[in-house]
């Protein structure tokens, strides 16, 4: 197996998964475009599978897009990962498949969103954001104007307070589902570990709907339970998988299967 992992930083889970793969005889190259300088024609498909761990930054996204354009097999598939980065497209697709999401609004200008504040607090997010960066809770016109910035689209969701005061991070690896309770916003890297959460049947059904919508079986999603009702507020194509038992082994197994399936 000749595998490349496109990522921005090596977290403990992916680091251990890589060592497991190497222990199985795989050649694994860590590709960190943000630390690279290259002449464009040097980008070539020279590995058998490219694992897309994270492409939140433009350098990684551009490298992955180039590899995909040249015909490289990618896991998760690059078009799906790229689409998930766009919260507008992703949330619309999830709603179409019956996934519960908060009331969500998109606008080219802030003024049209101001009347929504009469019904309560809003959450403003960068529509191509990640890791919670730039997410703001707003209750006034002034806060909304500051959070929205000057460049549309403006992406807004109704705010629902969590019943237990925590976010539920749900991870799916090869169809297996795991849950972790975490604070938000994260204050330290160790906050990602959180505490174990037992996944109920309703959450499993939601995970299945997301998997069907996105056509992948490895992803994470953030779930808020408010008033006893679940709301999916974000989806990630890979995630840190911190706090998931035996995550490195499961990731290595899923990457191995992706390598085996690449020609199908």
Oligomer description: single chain
Counting helices, strands and paired strands, the structural category is alpha+beta
Q: Provide the helix percentage.
A: 25-40%
User: How many beta-strand segments?
Assistant: 13
- Sketch the major β-sheet: 5 strands, antiparallel
What would you say this structure looks like, in words?
It is a single chain. The protein has 264 residues and is an alpha+beta fold. It has 3 domains: 2-76 and 247-261, Rossmann fold (3-Layer(aba) Sandwich); 85-100 and 162-236, D-amino Acid Aminotransferase, Chain A, domain 1; 104-158, Dna Ligase, domain 1, CATH 3.30.1490. Helices cover 30% and strands 25% of the residues. The protein has helices at 12-23, 58-69, 78-85, 87-96, 141-148, 201-214, 247-261, and strands spanning 2-6, 27-31, 49-52, 74-75, 104-107, 122-125, 136-138, 154-158, 167-173, 176-182, 195-197, 218-226, 229-236. Helix 1 (12-23) packs across helix 7 (247-261).
Features:
264 residues, Rossmann fold, D-amino Acid Aminotransferase, Chain A, domain 1, Dna Ligase, domain 1, 3 domains, five-stranded antiparallel sheet, four-stranded parallel sheet, 13 strands
Question: What is the fold's blueprint, element by element?
Answer:
Blueprint: E1 2-6, H1 12-23, E2 27-31, E3 49-52, H2 58-69, E4 74-75, H3 78-85, H4 87-96, E5 104-107, E6 122-125, E7 136-138, H5 141-148, E8 154-158, E9 167-173, E10 176-182, E11 195-197, H6 201-214, E12 218-226, E13 229-236, H7 247-261
Kindly summarize this structure in a few lines.
By secondary structure, the protein is of the alpha+beta class.
